[in-house]
Amino acid sequence: MLLSMLLTLAVQAEGLPQEPTLAFPDLVERVAELDWMLEAPLPGEGVEEFDGTQIAANQPIEFTVADAGALARLWISDRQGRLELSIDGETVEVLPLNLDDWDTQPEADRPLWQGAPLMSSLGRGWVSHLPVPFAKSMTLRWHGAPVGARMQLSVRRFGDGVQVIGFTSADLKEGDRKVRRALRRLNATDNPDVPVKPAPFKVGGARKRSADSPEMTTNGEFRWPIHGHGILRWFEVDFIHKDAPAPEEELLRSLVLRVEVGSGDLVKPGEVLFRVPLGDFFGSGPGKQQWQSPHMGFDVEKSTFYFRLPIPYRSGLKICVESDLPGIARFRVRAGFEPRQYATDVPPMRLHAGWIQGNHLGSSEAAVWNTQGPARLAAMSFTSTSSSTAPFRHDGPFAFAGSWGASQPLALEQVTLWDGPGNFGRSSMIRHFGLDAPTSGSDDSLRKAAGVLFDGEDEVNYRMFAWWYAPSENISNLDDPGAVEDRLPVPLPEPTFAVTPGAFEGEHVAGVLRALNTKIERVQAPLELGFSRAQYLEWNHTKANDNLVLPFPIYESGRYRVALRLATGPSRGKVQVFLDGRPMGEVLDLHAETAGVSEELPLGETRMMPRIDHRFGLRTLDGKPIGIDYFLLEPIVAAESSVPSEDTE
Q1: 640 SS3 class
Q2: pLDDT at residue 11, rounded to an integer
Q3: How much is the pLDDT for 15?
Q4: CA–CA dist 237, 286 (Å, integer)
Q5: 47 sits in which H/E element
Q6: Rounded Cα–Cα distance for residues 120 and 626 (Å)
Q7: Is 192 helix (H, G, I), strand (E, B) or coil?
Q8: Distance (Å, whole) CA 624 – CA 520
């Protein structure tokens, strides 16, 4: 940052025209604050992607970029390996040499930037959104895992007239205040600060009106008109009905969010920026996914949908919700506005959103977003619904999902739900592009395909959603939502494998903590073995007394019956189970002559308090691998005893 200021002062002293400069702290700020997306792209601005590169066993791979720019995103499907970076001819230390250890270090020992959302563990892989600028050149060398790995690399150019200041190792060590502020902003659960306080809100509802219903100026819609010019920085939606007019999934698909600009009048229509199903708009897919990202998601603690991508508007804005349900859906909408005095004070780009769905065999080739003219793609989500147990493959923006990873709070790319083996059930993925946003100039087109390939012969129902910034008149290929019956996912048949209702599936638990140098991976088991959802979490490379911790939430206080199922076999050993740090039950011996899964093993009863950070722990007493099918906490409905309990709280 100091170097940037000195260069600026030198230019001013010589009386030369000032060029905008971008250094490492400025780029981290751009990851957190998205106002740069509201400006039209400069000539020469864009992103170059190196996608799907295969790394041969024990063979390093090298990329060299011979001009100015920034490493905006790096994804590798395996954390075992070493990364070397050369910036403008100098070697810099950005990541630890042993990447497999970075998420097992004590939080106090980690570098400031290490952790979601700038760095996230994705199953066996990892992704970095740490922006690394270079003024002349960058060389990246990856010494890969013994079995090889896959890589995605995005390099951003900032356009004509922008000067880039190269990264040095000191940029991380100094902990510039801009970096700290940006990281706090990315990891905050609160909405961005706005000048209009307190934040206004509107309570209302929406319902479908029949032809003989009395006349209404809003035609049964929820409408919230806002006058003037400005930027809608954030808004939230809380459902407040006592009795929902439909099951949750149908409710989210039946409500359509519409945002209009150019009219702050309750009745007079404005220009429609987007009109999309409410559930898809928040990236929730079917049902209501309990994941969080810095820009949009569902806050579990508040039971609130939130949206934090800025929406500029001129001459008024109107938030509307349409309904296909005869019963009224009631909700509260809160919003944060930043007023601007004149229309010319409003940035030129607008937020657009669009939705597409289809049914396909073999691939999702039709799941493509494209648009003409200047645009920046901000985020994309993809959800598939299928009865097939055959595996599916990811390419393009969702290749990260092939590394397996459950939802990680406040991350920029996530697998939000994975119901069964292969592509059975519902699988939802979302990615926020941030600094690596694909960008087109004034005369260019922009295209992005979902790139999801299905190996099975069963029909796959999918929906893809995109958010992008472009001028108001921008047109894309994404459809306006049809009738509600067309928006609902195809009903799933009964699975051909065992499913345990209410269980915490080992392979789906997010934020797993494990002993140093140990490994976890999701294993798809033969259906005949009877594992719940035909999958389990394998923990290996262990030694005696190593610990594995699986966090989980409890939302209602009371007594619970605790049980679990673990893999058995010749390679299995003795295990002690813990709940919130306290032993549960006796030591379990999982040795067996053949591989399989145990019966449901009861561990006793305990009282639990509502918290989202309870911990289920496993300790291997002999260093042998452990396979976790599921653990279960089942509420006990019987009357409570008046005797004080000394159980876990």
Answers
A1: coil
A2: 40
A3: 45
A4: 17
A5: strand 45-54
A6: 24
A7: coil
A8: 13
Please state, as a whole number, how many other Cβ atoms lie within 10 Å of the Cβ of residue 269.
12
Cis omega before residue 117 (within 30°)? Answer: yes
Asked if 295 and 379 count as a contact pair (C-beta separation under 8 A), the reply is yes
Q: What is the pTM of this model?
A: 0.87
Phi, psi for residue 520 in degrees, rounded to 5 = -130, 145
Helix, strand or coil for residue 107?
helix
Query: Residue 292 carries which DSSP code?
Result: B
H or E, element range at 173: helix 170-174
- What gap in Å lies between CA 205 and CA 215, rounded to an integer? 16
- Is residue 235 within 8 A of residue 332, CB to CB? The reply is no
Single-letter residue type at 353: A
Q: Note the maximum CA span of the chain.
A: 83
Please name which of 227, 281, 290 lies closest in space to residue 255, comparing C-alpha atoms. 281
Question: By C-alpha distance, which of 589, 599, 588 is closest to 632?
Answer: 599
CA distance 275 to 288: 19
Which residues have a Cβ under 8 Å from the Cβ of 198 and sit 6 or more positions away? none
Check pLDDT > 70 for residue 146: no
The CB-side HSE value for 298 (13 A sphere, CA atoms) comes to 19
DSSP 467-483: EEEE-TT--BSPBPP--
Q: What's the rounded mean pLDDT across residues 351-378? A: 87
What is the Cα–Cα distance from 132 to 28, expressed in whole angstroms? Answer: 9
Q: Which amino acid is at 289?
A: Q
